[in-house]
UniProtKB/TrEMBL annotation, chain A:
Membrane topology: Lipid-anchor
GO BP terms: protein transport; Rab protein signal transduction
Subcellular location: Cleavage furrow; Endoplasmic reticulum membrane
Annotated stretches, region: Disordered: 181-201
Name of the gene encoding the protein in the UniProt record: tmem19
Main location, first listed in the record: other
Membrane-spanning intervals of the chain: none
GO molecular function terms noted in the UniProt entry: GTP binding; GTPase activity
Protein name: Ras-related protein Rab-21
GO CC field: cleavage furrow; endoplasmic reticulum membrane
Keywords from the UniProt entry: GTP-binding, Lipoprotein, Membrane, Nucleotide-binding, Prenylation, Protein transport, Transport
TrEMBL record, chain B:
Any single GO BP term: vesicle-mediated transport
Residue ranges annotated for the A20-type domain, each copy included: 13-47
Keyword ATP-binding belongs to the record: no
Organism annotation: Electrophorus electricus
Cellular component, GO annotation: cytosol; endocytic vesicle
Polar residues: bias regions: 481-492
GO terms for MF: DNA binding; guanyl-nucleotide exchange factor activity; small GTPase binding; zinc ion binding
InterPro entries, per database record: DUF5601, VPS9, Vps9-like, VPS9_dom_sf, Znf_A20
Signal peptide region: none
Protein name according to UniProt: RAB guanine nucleotide exchange factor (GEF) 1, like
Biased composition (Basic and acidic residues): 447-466
Gene name for this UniProt entry: rabgef1l
Length: 218, 511
């Protein structure tokens, strides 16, 4: 849903942040948007909706990052959040095998609901805890390749890999948007975004997962 | 012969088919039995008469208004000698009188009877500040005026925009039997085509287009509110009632069960919760989708403040959503489903896709979806407990009193921030029973019977006191009739009061 005249194009992208509680979604995005980690001086009010303005190869990009509730009990609400999003960042904790399984579930869902229009990033966070790694690099990267996603390793604590992650994602989303424009013609008309009412679809009765979706369980 | 058979088959007399005016052509029941020509003549006549009447009324009101202005101006001139004040007044007046023909021109393009009325209202508006008519009418008329004022700043394109919006509005208002779907479709198509048009008009300044589109949305939704909010053709109302009942049934859900990081024992936090509840309820009273969204955002901001206060760190979505669900449950906002549908249908689509308002609106949709589908598993409760709570036979704060540490209390493991609050806050009701038995089974049985006993006692007590009051009343009617009775001094022995029960003694309650 890029908008604006053809000359000075401003892209607006919506990116959803998915991941189990406690994998560090919030830290990741706070680090990126405000360069803060575990900030005890509470100047940041919220980390659930953040925006960032970028300039990539002369093109202006407005990034809106939507945090989502990661608790298991809210899993069925996913589609409401990632409707019409251009990109998704799926975060797992490299020390937690379960959180990687969750990422796989989300990928499956996203592909089913949004097809290939959405740029996916799978992010292994907490690489500062390399010693306690439970998800192997080969497995994660292999999986990402198999579903057409990119894989990144980050550490919000050490501020590693985060800039690259977002920059890469923006470039990919721009490519998608441009390709779409070419497809539509001169790109004179702005996208007519789907505007149907909210729908919740969870036709897949998920296996009764063990309780403990609460973030204190991690 | 054949024509005779035909007549018999449809059983309609020939005279019923011809035009009632007797012009010889066939009439049509849709035109009150007239033929098309006679109907048009008739209708035109009535219509132009109506327009004329309206115009006359408008002119009369305008004259009155001007007279009022003139007298006001004179007073201003005589009372305050400051001449520039008078000049300013004069300027305003001349601007006003100049604006009148413009308004007329705007409305002159079509000849619908309502137009004249609109113009009238727009003109009389300055002295109608005492809100003469019903509120909504005044509001939508003000909207028209505001809209025209706004479009004037756009010069010529403004006039085009107004003409488009105006005719669109009337075309929609005319089609009363449109279903919600078609209504949405046509309004969204209109937004789309208008914004396309504006995008070519104001190339390279999307901000400007956005401002215009906001005004267009405001104008249209204010005028079509009755028709578009909770339309009759949809089942919105039924769903409203369903969600309302659902929320009422879930009254027992606490912050702890939801793991919402809101510690209401901190006064500042409970304050923000109250503010959030107020805002989400207030949302219903707004008529423009954008205003409704603004209230949702305000509500969300209050919640975020509360979460941050409790957790002492920035609120993430993991914290925010449960807290929002809690607030929605506490508030039980009126016509929740209708409001959400209204916003989704008639808001400019771009606003819901991106932007902060869109984010919080999405969260509200999530909260509602969660509440609708909520079950024992999603609250980490055992199905038995859930059933018990839902049927109102027990409530979590009772069962979780001291001495009970079964499965359900372990489910109370709150979010990190909620833990200090523990089982504290919701205990107040349970605490009133000092004789709380220790055995869980006994307690449950007791707690099941106690309300029953309480109820019986209460109704007996009520009956007694009502009897008492009635006895007292029987003596009453005499006193108003004896109008000449001297005013009784409060503390004197009064014969009339003998039948009344003795005054209440404070000691009775102390025991």
């Amino acid at each position: 849903m890029a908008a604006g005249g053809p000359g000075s194009k401003t892209y607006s992208f919506k990116v959803v942040l998915l991941g189990e509680g406690c994998v560090g979604k919030t830290s990741l995005v706070l680090r990126y948007c405000e360069n803060k980690f575990n900030d005890k001086h509470i100047t940041t009010l919220q980390a659930s909706f953040l925006t960032k303005k970028l300039n990539i190869t002369g093109k202006r990009v407005n990034l809106a990052i939507w945090d989502t509730a990661g608790q298991e009990r809210f899993h069925a609400l996913g589609p409401i959040y990632y409707r019409d999003s251009n990109g998704a960042i799926l975060v797992y904790d490299i020390t937690d095998e379960d959180s990687f399984q969750k990422v796989k579930n989300w990928v499956k869902e996203l592909r089913k609901m949004l097809g290939n229009e959405i740029s996916l990033c799978i992010v292994g966070n907490k690489i500062d805890l390399e010693k306690e790694r439970h998800v192997s690099v080969e497995e994660a990267e292999g999986y990402a390749d198999s579903v057409g996603a990119k894989h990144y390793h980050t550490s919000a604590k050490l501020n590693k890999g985060i800039e690259e992650l977002f920059l890469d994602l923006c470039k990919r989303m721009m490519e998608t948007a441009q390709a779409e424009e070419r497809l539509r013609g001169n790109g004179a008309s702005t996208a007519a975004p789907g505007r149907r009412g909210v729908q919740i679809i969870d036709d897949e009765p998920r296996a009764a997962t063990a309780a403990g979706g609460c973030c204190s369980s991690g | 012969m054949s024509s005779h058979a035909e007549h018999r088959r449809i059983r309609v007399d020939h005279s019923a088919l011809v035009c009632k005016k007797g012009c010889g052509y066939f009439g049509n029941p849709a035109w009150q039995g007239l033929c098309s020509k006679c109907w048009r003549e008739d209708n035109q006549h009535a219509r132009s008469k109506q327009v004329e009447e309206d115009r006359a009324l408008a002119e009369r009101l305008q004259r009155e208004e001007e007279a009022a202005y003139a007298s006001g101006q004179q007073r201003a001139l005589s009372e305050a000698s400051a001449t520039h004040l008078g000049k300013a007044e004069e300027k305003r007046m001349s601007q006003k009188s100049r604006s009148v023909p413009t308004v007329k021109k705007f409305f002159g393009s079509s000849s619908k009877p309502t137009l004249g009325r609109d113009a009238t209202a727009a003109q009389t508006k300055p002295d109608a500040s005492g809100s003469l008519g019903p509120q909504p009418v005044v509001e939508s008329d003000q909207a028209t005026k505001h809209f025209i004022d706004f479009l004037k700043t756009l010069q010529k394109p403004g006039r085009d925009i107004f003409r488009q919006c105006h005719s669109f509005r009337h075309s929609v208002a005319y089609k009363k039997d449109l279903g919600a779907e078609e209504l949405t479709e046509s309004i969204q198509d209109f937004y789309q085509s208008l914004s396309d048009h504006l995008n070519t008009l104001y190339k390279g300044t999307p901000e400007r287009v956005e401002v215009v589109m906001d005004e267009v949305e405001k104008y249209l939704t204010l005028h079509l509110y009755e028709q578009t909010f909770c339309p009759e053709s949809s089942d919105d109302e039924v769903k409203d009632l369903a969600i309302q009942k659902r929320i009422r049934d879930l009254h027992w859900v606490t912050v702890q069960i939801l793991c919402a990081p809101l510690n209401e024992e901190i006064p500042a936090v409970s304050d923000t919760v109250v503010k959030a509840i107020t805002d989400i309820i207030e949302m219903d009273s707004r008529r423009v989708p954008r205003d409704k969204l603004r209230y949702i955002t305000r509500c969300s901001k209050h919640i975020i403040h509360g979460v941050r206060r409790t957790k002492r760190e920035a609120a993430s979505a993991d914290d925010f959503l449960p807290a929002l669900i809690y607030v929605v449950l506490k508030a039980n906002p009126p016509r929740l489903h209708s409001n959400i549908q209204y916003i989704t249908r008639f808001s400019n689509p771009g606003r819901l896709m991106s932007g902060e308002d869109g984010y919080y609106f999405t969260n509200l949709c999530c909260a509602v979806a969660f509440i609708e589908k909520l079950d024992a598993e999603s609250l980490n409760l055992s199905p038995e407990d859930f059933e018990l709570y839902m049927s109102g036979q027990a409530s979590p704060d009772r069962l979780l009193g001291p001495g009970r540490s079964s499965s359900s209390s372990s489910s109370l493991r709150g979010g990190p921030g909620a833990e200090p609050a523990g089982a504290g806050a919701p205990q107040t009701r349970g605490r009133r029973d000092p004789d709380l038995p220790t055995g869980p089974g006994v307690q449950q049985e007791q707690s099941l019977h106690r309300p029953e006993r309480d109820l019986i006692e209460w109704s007996d007590g009520m009956e007694r006191s009502v009897q008492d009051v009635l006895e007292g009343l029987q003596l009453e009617p005499r006193s108003p009739e004896t109008g000449s009775q001297p005013p009784s001094t409060i503390d004197s022995e009064n014969a009339d009061c003998e039948g009344l029960p003795p005054p209440l003694q404070p000691q009775v309650f102390a025991g």
